[in-house]
Amino acid sequence: MKTPSGSHILMLKAPYECFQAIEELGADAHPSGSVLVWPVSRESLDAGDFDLIANRPRGVSCVIILPSASDIPTIAPFLHRLPDASPNAVLPSGRLATPFGVRAALAAFPRSLPKAVTDYLWRHRVVDDQAARIEIQRVFQMAPRTATIGQLCREMYLSRRTLGRHFEARGLPVPSHWLQFARILNVLLRAQAERRAMFKIAIATGYPDGFTFSNQVKRLIGVRPSAARELVGFEWLVEAWLKREHENRDSISPDEDCFD
């Protein structure tokens, strides 16, 4: 998707040192961990930037930067629509509207990770059934304190086979993989937000050691934990995992219990 010549949308990618103008909004034009930065103005609205941001490719984060206080009245009639663009953060103009400020906003741990992930999956129709959405959100809610699929199912008052059938019927990855991805994502995003050693965060959330955690990250997502820490945001991690699951789907049974 070509961006209009008057577009004001910028891109920020690792190592997150400077904003860049963009010409393409296709999925292949954005490396993992990249962020679309939209400085809102009357001119950018007239250029159609809202629609480009709202329909951005999967796996790409977005930060909206508001205009200065004196210019807010020029976009006031449109402010109520900004949430429809599903931004990861909205920043005021000024010292926070810098590459460092944008990176810091993306690296902050989400206020509610279960809601953020399930909203993302719902928005992109990966999950289009309300019952499945609720079950996946519960998996993410329980993941920080739940290490096995057996324990998860007991807390959800479902058998492993029943939960597996729910997910299989909707063409979703098996429940044990959702649980392990949710646990991994919780650690990786905390590592982005905190200065603690990643293996300490992993152990604090129930992994026996950093080696076990690292192996699971590489097997389920296909990236090194150190790379996942440097590339901010969660959307690209979700997409990397979904891609890996799609590639391996034929070799996995619906009620598989890989980590119990």
Give the key terms.
260 residues, disordered C terminus, 5 strands, Arc Repressor Mutant, subunit A, alpha/beta, 13 helices
Detailed description of the structure:
- The protein is an alpha/beta fold.
- The chain has 13 helices and 5 strands.
- It has 2 domains: 98 residues; 139 residues, Arc Repressor Mutant, subunit A (Orthogonal Bundle).
- The chain is 47% helix and 7% strand.
- Helix 5 packs antiparallel against helix 6.
- The longest helix is centred in the C-terminal third of the chain and has 19 residues.
Specify the number of helices: 13
Instruction: Provide the residue-averaged pLDDT.
Output: 90
Known CATH architecture of the largest domain:
Orthogonal Bundle
In the CATH hierarchy, the third-tier topology of the largest domain is known as Arc Repressor Mutant, subunit A
Q: Major sheet: size, sense and barrel closure? A: 5 strands, mixed
Beta content comes to 5-15%
Structural class: alpha/beta
CATH H-level homologous superfamily name of the largest domain: Homeodomain-like
Number of domains: 2
The radius of gyration computed from the alpha-carbon positions, rounded to a whole number of angstroms, is: 19 Å
DSSP summary, beta strand count: 5
Q: Order the strands across the largest sheet as they lie in space.
A: 2-1-3-4-5
Our measurement of the CA-to-CA distance between the termini, rounded to an integer number of angstroms, reads 44 Å
Regions with pLDDT < 50 over 5+ consecutive residues? 252-260
CATH class assignment of the largest domain: Mainly Alpha
The level of helicity is 40-55%
Order of helices and strands: EEEHHEHEHHHHHHHHHH
Rough shape?
globular
